[in-house]
Fold each of these.
Amino acid sequence: MRASAGESPIKANGRYLLIDGGFCRAYHDRTGIAGYTLIFSSRGMRLVAHSPFAGKEAAIRENRDILAATDVVFERMNRRMLVCDTDEGHALTERMHELKRLLDAYRAGVIKEPNEF
């Protein structure tokens, strides 16, 4: 994948990301970048392309920024993802309903309080 030639790491209409191998120094000259970071948040997914870092001295001498060079948003949520939208959120909601049913059964007398020892 040659980012320096304008090739995008996002393939197949966003269903495939080609981001492997960029952190390896041997590929920096070939790809033009030092790799990607995939960032997933409640607002969507982003890819950040990193510039190769030659060291502190080179960054100071050439006045180069050591932060990510390119930030590409390729999937934005229509609304922010909440905990209840996740698998863990569904499990927590189900557990909450189970506890509510247990409390209702206790209040109705179906479940008796255990005797003290």
Amino acid sequence: QDTICFAIVVTDLFLTMTSDEPEKTAEVAEVSFEDSVGGKGEFENASLSLEDVSDKQLGVQALANQIASRRADRLPVTYGVFVAFLKCCKRIAKERNYETLNKIKSTDMIKLREELTKEITKGRILPGPVRRFTEFFGFRDELRTANLLVDRAERRVEAMAEQHADFRLSFLEGWFYYRDFAFYHTVTEATLPWTRNELSVALTKTLLFFLGTPIFFCYISPDENICPAEQGWLNSLYFASKTMSTVGYGDVSVDRSTTWKVFVGTMYMIIALLVTLSSFGAVVQSGVSKYNGFWERRMVEFADLIGFKKTDDNTLHSRIQLVKFCKIGDITIKFVIVNLIGVFATRLFMLRENEDWSWSWMESFYWAVQTTTTIGYGDMTKNPDQRYFDIFYLILGTYFVGAALSNITELNQQLLDTRRFFAWDRLQSNSAMFRSMDINKDGTVDQYEFVLASLIMLDKIEPADVDPIIKKYRDLCGNDSTCITTTDLEAAVDSAGDNESISFEMDADGNLEKPVWDKAKD
């Protein structure tokens, strides 16, 4: 009960904190217990209904959408621009001898633009063709990004001035809290384009591993087993693909004639495993997995055709069966497709060779399965020219295994969520559940209490998630207070110093709209 109480307070505070603009919200939807039938746990006139607010969003919905919209609208800046912005703002604060270094005057924007331009260019400006060439390959024009950042800061200051024309607190009037602005309106990104998302980083690691293998075993530490005189690069790339996929046919291995080469082979296997775990995991989660939604939709449509109708009236058993059918069907279809690719590819190679390399259809399927499952018995004699295909097929098989394991994990989570939400639907008219949310014991449950308590009950968040937020809340308002007041924030601003910036917005009547804090170290 105490945990839910703390979580409710934190959610209410957090939703207020993160609103960027003052916004009219819908009236709080409440559940009343006064009309409930005693002892039966059912409601006659007091069941939670959103019909009255169907034409508008609840306050919590509006705030959630506002937060998501603001996050999506953040300006991407490189780390160099981000640091230069903070450095220039702090330098201006020092030159102006402001009492704290976490803010500057709104009239310092022109000075900020000049200082930031000098800091970014260092007196050197790239010619136009060079800038266009670098931008073509995905590099950011840092000078242009810096100007966009200052433009947004100026617009933010102007918007604040319009919204708070009657602002009367002199110690905050005209101040621009640059650290808060940088935190809420920018998102840092890597300078190198190929390191800005997990998929590109994974592909870069894989490419470097494949290129490094023939370079190392053909030139740095020559190994005739891996890099023979003929087709050395092809054999090295095949060895890299085989090792990275953990198939291990046993047809190519490192030279074990010396202890040093055995050690090199051991370290190579460890590096290959690390690259596999990091790269293929990122590919499954961030890149190719985006196409999983297509297959899942097709499976749902097929399930409808054969009688697995998804309705609110489904029993728990039928819902679980539908989830299993869609997920397992998705894995099965991918397994069949990947193995058919291997079967038909090997048959094409067989057509070009003599009878010594001939496999039957079943043997081709046997080889494809042991490859896609990364088992790799190594008992099949292959055509050497088939290694061109094997390099890519081994990678495809490894991805399939990773995707299958990911789908199995998702299946377990989906089954757990299905059971939880099914039970949740059946508890909609349970008065005991709603009374547990009534922290104030006033016979009502507002939308914030209902949403947060529901998230905790559905295990979407844990009590430990709110502990750090509660600690910060108590630091601001004190253990004996139930809310953050203007007096609390004034005291926090006075004691903020150089390492902490706190700002907040008020409406024309002086009502608190948004408290914000940020412990951004220099």
